[in-house]
Write a structure and sequence with these properties.
Layout lengths: L47 E7 L8 H11 L1 E7 L3 H10 L7 E2 L6 H6 L19 H4 L14 E13 L22 E4 L2 H11 L10 H14 E5 L2 H9 L5 E5 H9 L4 E4 L5 E8 L8 H11 L2 H9 L4 E2 L2 H6 L2 H6 L4 H4 L2 E3 L5 H16 L1
Parallel strand pairs: 1-2, 1-3, 5-6, 5-7, 9-11
Antiparallel strand pairs: 4-7, 4-8, 4-9, 4-10
């Protein structure tokens, strides 16, 4: 999510962008493959179900966070888990009416989803917490269509950078090059994502991470990294298990996941190194074919509220888009979770890629893994 440049984002405080629509919802249960069951919008108990497509363990399936909303709206939230941004885009294109009510696109796919007429315009006047967002998020360019309407609401922001085992790595790495360093051979976990792979390699080579100048050099570096890599991970749960079992010392990881692991007692450190990291913004949107649009809007409003955003961020979640929630977070904790302004200023925020660029990057990454 994250998912343009975010350096204006912080203006002296921690900002996290994310929005969930308040609405009647469904139980946080799903099928074996992580998808929501395709029953009616009302549960056996008569409660309305709100179908949410999100990352696993990312707010909408946290029973403590959503309990109040479900009780006040006599609803249940049903979660379907996405595997990637492109996976979400595919789900939006192929879903049946009523199958998705709220989804979490980041800025890399939002313009494509808007152009394809997959999302409903958001009436921000109905969001009581919208004015509490950082000003930068109220006009997030990727959330706006050519018609000037807003099609998604920033929920949270964060970074993808270096996580490390504080028991085995005594000093925080100062460069993203540690992910390509021989001294950690066999103890590195790299994310299986073409966007993160190309951007991380570009940063290590001193190239513009959004507009790399030498793709051959990037491929060569990623091929060398493969020989050092313990594994490529796809989900936060995979990384957590690798880390907890002592199989890795350093890895490319999300700020929020690292903060959650630290809260759970793992000896994990997280840093946006001097040569940078990858920034992202995650946003809540309502699909065009949702059957619970008013409830979805209420859910988004609830999820961007000060109380929910503060609770989520302070317990290990990503940085809040709500400026009141950000101001309430302990500064020392914010720094340890890379929510501070210094970390923010080192980030290159992911931008929208056209189809040609995405295909080029994906082909490169597929070739690296297949070699």
């Amino acid at each position: 999510m994250k998912k343009g440049s975010f350096k204006k984002l912080f203006i002296g405080a921690l900002a996290v962008a994310v929005m969930f629509s308040m609405s009647a919802c469904g139980n946080a249960t799903g099928t074996a493959d992580g998808s929501a069951s395709k029953d009616s919008s009302a549960s056996d108990s008569g409660k309305t179900k709100l179908y949410v497509v999100n990352w696993k363990d990312y707010g909408s399936d946290d029973k403590d966070l959503i309990k109040k909303f479900e009780e006040e709206n006599d609803c249940e939230i049903v979660n379907t888990y996405m595997q990637s941004e492109d996976d979400l885009l595919t789900k939006l294109k192929t879903s049946s009416a009523g199958e998705i009510d709220v989804c979490l696109p980041n800025c890399t796919i939002l313009p494509a989803a808007i152009k394809a007429d997959l999302l409903e315009p958001v009436d921000t006047s109905k969001l009581t917490n919208f004015n509490s967002l950082f000003d930068r998020f109220k006009t997030q360019k990727e959330c706006l269509g050519d018609d000037g309407q807003m099609y998604a609401v920033p929920l949270v922001w964060g970074s993808t950078a270096v996580a490390y085992n504080t028991d085995t790595v005594k000093e925080a790495p100062t460069s993203i090059k540690c992910l390509f360093d021989e001294q950690y051979k066999g103890k590195i976990a790299f994310r299986d994502d073409y966007n993160d792979a190309v951007m991380a390699a570009a940063l290590a080579l001193g190239q513009d991470a959004n507009n790399p100048s030498d793709m051959d050099a990037i491929k060569d570096l990623l091929l060398k990294q493969k020989e050092l890599n313990k594994t490529y991970w796809q989900t936060g749960d995979e990384f957590s298990k690798l880390f907890a079992s002592g199989q890795i010392d350093v890895g490319l990881m999300w700020s929020g996941q690292s903060a959650t692991m630290a809260k759970d007692g793992e000896h994990i450190g997280y840093v946006v190194p001097e040569d940078g990291g990858i920034g992202w913004v995650d946003n809540f949107a309502i699909p065009k074919n949702s059957k619970n649009k008013e409830l979805a809007l209420k859910f988004i409003d609830y999820m961007i509220s000060k109380d929910v955003q503060y609770k989520w961020a302070s317990q290990g979640g990503p940085a809040p888009a709500n400026k009141e929630a950000a101001a309430a977070i302990d500064p020392d904790y914010a720094k340890s979770a890379a929510m501070d302004e210094e970390s923010l200023n080192r980030l290159t925020f992911m931008e929208y890629r056209d189809d040609k660029t995405k295909q080029e990057w994906n082909d490169l990454w597929t070739s690296v893994k297949a070699s």
